[in-house]
């Protein structure tokens, strides 16, 4: 039995909740009576409640995020109906910022902000029968030099099968209006020597996949250099993911990135828009020349996998403007380009544009844009389908040779938009389209526009490393010598396809 349970609903099994592990690591004398119990958002809510209550907890702390807010609301209501005396404490961005757009009212307490100290103190008060009257608790920023690091709370199963999330800093110096990180403008760093010692322990335990959640990893060059040196000193295979500022790549950083072997390094680069006026309108700094130069460098002189982000629906940006952004990025790199739909998160200042730009958002997670004065509801819907099909056919890396046949003369957006509309007409769906169906659809579409021999040669090249049974009979060729080319790797499959 455990008096305190820490839980959340992860998006999938491979994910781990770093926030829960911070809370657990900082429970001090209460840690022996606490336990982390994670679930996924696809599990039955009543089964989750049953599992939690089987521990007979007095306190349940729940991390609430945009992807699990609706399910968490249902979980809270279920728990309170069958075990009303169990104290429920919420934290995380979906609970900590107002207004709440899902019903979290049944919770006993909500902690807003970084909860390592506040959660411990609240639990102590509750267990000593001196619970505070205040329902919404604003946590002071903890001193990152004094809190306990969470990494020994990763279990062996986590190390072997799941992402290991880590961080070297918190906060962001920028004020991008769509992002919650802009609320904490001051960047604070963890003690670097202690952090590297923890990473070494994780490495010795077998961890080979490290995902840094820092918003601006390459802002502090001392930290960036030493952390990159940590990985460069190790024997591959390993996989390290960093979110980086696109305009800040000093020569020393470029030199280190160029030394990483293929498949070992992923850089997430938040472009969002390449239009200086649009960027200025949302308080996003945009040093366009430096961004372009750095993307070219990373594309042509390193083996790093890039994950570039663009957003549909930013205030003042037309569909044509978004299309130009996409065309430009595809001309610069063959890397993954993630197309996101603008979301209006509680706690951000994005709503100040609502009147001037006619911004209308859903009140249901993920609070995505429904329309504005430049994009109708129908156009937003089409762009959501565009984004989904782009992920399937472009970002997946399954069709690197054949997908460029969808567009011509560099008009990537126009060509793929037409393809996206055609695909939806054929499927009336953006989900559960099998690989065999993807291949057949792409084959049919391309053969309407190109010589059949060219199309089938490109598709055969793309599919040559797949098992024969996944290749339609009309494309099967003798490709056995290509099928087992890939060496053992910890690189995620999607990234390895685009290497």
From TrEMBL:
Its cofactor is [4Fe-4S] cluster. Residues 2-133 form the B12-binding domain. It holds the Pfam family B12-binding. Residues 477-499 are annotated as: Disordered. InterPro entries: BchE-like, Cobalamin-bd, DUF4080, Elp3/MiaA/NifB-like_rSAM, rSAM, rSAM_horseshoe, rSAM_sf. The keyword DNA repair does not apply. CDD domains: radical_SAM_B12_BD (cd02068). GO terms for molecular function: catalytic activity; cobalamin binding; iron-sulfur cluster binding; metal ion binding. PANTHER family: ANAEROBIC MAGNESIUM-PROTOPORPHYRIN IX MONOMETHYL ESTER CYCLASE-RELATED, SLR0320 PROTEIN. This is Radical SAM domain protein. It comes from Sulfuricurvum kujiense (strain ATCC BAA-921 / DSM 16994 / JCM 11577 / YK-1).
């Amino acid at each position: 039995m455990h008096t305190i349970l820490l839980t959340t609903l992860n998006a999938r099994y491979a994910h781990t909740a770093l926030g829960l592990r911070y809370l657990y690591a900082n429970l001090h004398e209460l840690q022996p009576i606490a336990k982390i119990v994670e679930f996924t958002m696809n599990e039955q809510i009543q089964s989750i409640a049953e599992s939690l209550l089987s521990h007979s907890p007095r306190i349940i702390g729940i991390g609430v995020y945009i992807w699990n807010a609706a399910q968490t609301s249902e979980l809270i209501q279920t728990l309170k109906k069958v075990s009303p005396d169990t104290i429920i404490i919420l934290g995380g961005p979906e609970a900590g910022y107002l207004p709440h757009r899902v019903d979290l009212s049944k919770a006993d307490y909500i902690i807003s902000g970084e909860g390592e100290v506040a959660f411990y103190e609240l639990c102590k008060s509750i267990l000593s029968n001196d619970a505070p009257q205040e329902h919404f608790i604003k946590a002071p920023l903890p001193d990152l030099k004094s809190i306990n690091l969470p990494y020994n709370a990763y279990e062996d199963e986590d190390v072997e099968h799941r992402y290991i999330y880590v961080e070297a800093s918190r906060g962001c110096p920028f004020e991008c209006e769509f992002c919650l990180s802009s609320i904490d403008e001051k960047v604070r760093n963890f003690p670097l020597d202690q952090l590297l010692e923890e990473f070494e322990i994780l490495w010795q335990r077998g961890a080979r996949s490290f995902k840094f959640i820092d918003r601006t990893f390459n802002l502090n060059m001392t930290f960036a250099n030493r952390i990159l040196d940590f990985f460069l000193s190790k024997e591959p295979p390993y996989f390290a993911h960093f979110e980086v500022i696109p305009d800040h790549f000093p020569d020393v950083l470029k030199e280190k990135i160029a030394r990483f072997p293929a498949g070992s390094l992923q850089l997430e680069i938040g472009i969002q828009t390449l239009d200086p006026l649009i960027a200025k309108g949302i308080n996003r700094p945009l040093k366009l020349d430096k961004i372009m130069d750095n993307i070219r460098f990373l594309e042509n002189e390193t083996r790093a996998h890039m994950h570039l982000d663009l957003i549909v629906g930013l205030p003042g940006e037309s569909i044509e403007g978004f299309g130009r952004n996409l065309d430009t990025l595809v001309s610069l790199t063959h890397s993954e380009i993630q197309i996101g739909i603008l979301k209006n998160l509680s706690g951000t200042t994005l709503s100040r544009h609502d009147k001037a730009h006619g911004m209308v958002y859903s009140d249901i997670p993920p609070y995505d844009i429904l329309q504005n004065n430049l994009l109708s509801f129908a156009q937003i819907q089409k762009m959501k389908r565009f984004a989904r099909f782009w992920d399937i056919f472009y970002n997946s890396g399954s069709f690197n040779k054949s997908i460029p046949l969808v567009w011509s003369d560099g008009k990537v957006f126009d060509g793929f938009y037409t393809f996206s509309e055609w695909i939806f007409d054929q499927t009336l769906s953006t989900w559960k389209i099998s690989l065999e169906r993807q291949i057949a659809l792409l084959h049919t579409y391309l053969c309407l526009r190109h010589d059949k021999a060219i199309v089938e040669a490109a598709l055969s090249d793309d599919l040559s490393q797949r098992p024969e049974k996944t290749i339609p009979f009309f494309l099967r060729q003798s490709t056995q010598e290509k099928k087992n080319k890939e060496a053992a790797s910890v690189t995620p499959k999607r990234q390895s396809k685009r290497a």
